[in-house]
Amino acid sequence: MKNFLSLCILFLLCFSSCQTANDSNKSSDITFHKSHLPQRQNTPFSAAVETENLLFLSGQIGKDHSKGILAPGGIKAETKQALENIKAVLAQHNSSLDRVVKCTVILADINDFKDFNSVYVQYFPNKPARTTFAAGGLAIGAKIEIDVIAAK
To answer: Are 70 and 140 in contact (CB under 8 A)?
Structure first.
């Protein structure tokens, strides 16, 4: 009985130490990255979240951050700017558009799909998985928002 009790205690100690190690690793496996742009340091979201070998980017609209305005010229110009913004965030984290595995595209107007797509295909020859839909409205009156998941 004494040996059995000793084995149970030993098992519980091993189990609890393994559990503690796993819990501490969980929080260190995820990194929340602020924006690389000084004017976007205080946003209430991360520019990118990194876990294992994946980067999850927050949505980008067609805003030219150097000027603080949406790219003028409509859906094509905003799509190009949104994709350039994504490209910059990926580069900041040692990744690139050719490492994108999933895109989510939100259009303010589904009638802009053809024009958006004509720009999009120039940036993604690898054809990542994609979901596209229209919403009732986007931040600051944007015509498009795109988020991506990329491999590191």
So the answer is: yes
